[in-house]
Design a protein that fits this description.
This protein is an all-alpha fold and about 90 residues long. The chain contains two helices and no strands. The chain has one domain.
Protein backbone atom coordinates (compact mmCIF):
# COMPACT_ATOMS: atom_id res chain seq x y z
CA UNK A 1 0.00 0.00 0.00
CA UNK A 2 1.38 3.39 -0.99
CA UNK A 3 1.37 6.36 1.32
CA UNK A 4 0.83 9.69 -0.41
CA UNK A 5 3.59 12.29 -0.29
CA UNK A 6 1.67 14.81 1.86
CA UNK A 7 0.88 12.15 4.46
CA UNK A 8 4.48 10.97 4.55
CA UNK A 9 5.83 14.52 4.90
CA UNK A 10 3.42 15.20 7.77
CA UNK A 11 4.39 11.95 9.49
CA UNK A 12 8.10 12.74 9.06
CA UNK A 13 7.60 16.20 10.58
CA UNK A 14 5.73 14.68 13.54
CA UNK A 15 8.48 12.11 14.11
CA UNK A 16 11.22 14.76 13.89
CA UNK A 17 9.49 17.02 16.41
CA UNK A 18 8.81 14.12 18.79
CA UNK A 19 12.45 13.03 18.59
CA UNK A 20 13.61 16.58 19.25
CA UNK A 21 11.28 16.90 22.23
CA UNK A 22 12.53 13.64 23.76
CA UNK A 23 16.11 14.81 23.26
CA UNK A 24 15.37 18.23 24.78
CA UNK A 25 13.52 16.56 27.65
CA UNK A 26 16.60 14.50 28.47
CA UNK A 27 18.76 17.62 28.28
CA UNK A 28 16.39 19.54 30.53
CA UNK A 29 16.54 16.73 33.10
CA UNK A 30 20.18 17.65 33.67
CA UNK A 31 19.94 21.38 32.83
CA UNK A 32 16.59 22.48 34.32
CA UNK A 33 17.56 26.14 34.42
CA UNK A 34 18.34 26.44 30.70
CA UNK A 35 15.62 28.90 29.69
CA UNK A 36 16.49 28.78 25.99
CA UNK A 37 16.09 24.99 25.87
CA UNK A 38 12.83 25.21 27.79
CA UNK A 39 11.45 27.79 25.36
CA UNK A 40 12.41 25.61 22.38
CA UNK A 41 10.81 22.58 24.05
CA UNK A 42 7.57 24.53 24.55
CA UNK A 43 7.64 25.84 20.97
CA UNK A 44 8.05 22.33 19.59
CA UNK A 45 5.17 21.12 21.76
CA UNK A 46 2.94 23.90 20.45
CA UNK A 47 3.90 23.04 16.88
CA UNK A 48 3.49 19.28 17.37
CA UNK A 49 -0.05 19.29 18.75
CA UNK A 50 -1.82 20.69 15.65
CA UNK A 51 0.27 18.49 13.35
CA UNK A 52 -0.84 15.37 15.24
CA UNK A 53 -4.45 16.56 15.19
CA UNK A 54 -4.24 17.18 11.44
CA UNK A 55 -2.73 13.75 10.81
CA UNK A 56 -5.36 12.00 12.91
CA UNK A 57 -8.22 13.95 11.33
CA UNK A 58 -7.04 13.27 7.78
CA UNK A 59 -5.54 9.79 8.02
CA UNK A 60 -5.67 7.67 11.16
CA UNK A 61 -4.98 7.74 14.89
CA UNK A 62 -1.31 7.79 15.75
CA UNK A 63 -1.75 6.04 19.09
CA UNK A 64 -4.37 3.70 20.52
CA UNK A 65 -5.50 6.16 23.18
CA UNK A 66 -6.59 8.57 20.44
CA UNK A 67 -8.51 5.95 18.47
CA UNK A 68 -11.77 6.32 20.42
CA UNK A 69 -14.56 4.70 18.46
CA UNK A 70 -12.76 5.07 15.15
CA UNK A 71 -12.09 2.15 12.89
CA UNK A 72 -8.69 0.58 13.60
CA UNK A 73 -7.30 1.84 10.30
CA UNK A 74 -3.63 1.46 11.15
CA UNK A 75 -4.07 -2.26 10.55
CA UNK A 76 -4.69 -1.44 6.88
CA UNK A 77 -1.57 0.73 6.51
CA UNK A 78 2.00 -0.47 6.23
CA UNK A 79 3.81 -0.94 9.52
CA UNK A 80 6.45 1.73 10.23
CA UNK A 81 9.29 -0.62 9.24
CA UNK A 82 7.55 -1.32 5.92
CA UNK A 83 7.49 2.35 4.83
CA UNK A 84 10.19 3.60 2.50
CA UNK A 85 10.50 7.10 3.96
CA UNK A 86 12.67 8.31 1.11
CA UNK A 87 10.47 7.08 -1.70
CA UNK A 88 7.03 7.88 -0.31
CA UNK A 89 5.70 4.53 0.76
CA UNK A 90 5.67 0.91 -0.15
Amino acid sequence: MKINKERLELLNEIMALEFSMVDLNLYLDTHPCDEKALIIFQQYGCKLKPLKEKYEDEYAPITAENAGNRHWRWIEDPWPWEIDYEMGGK
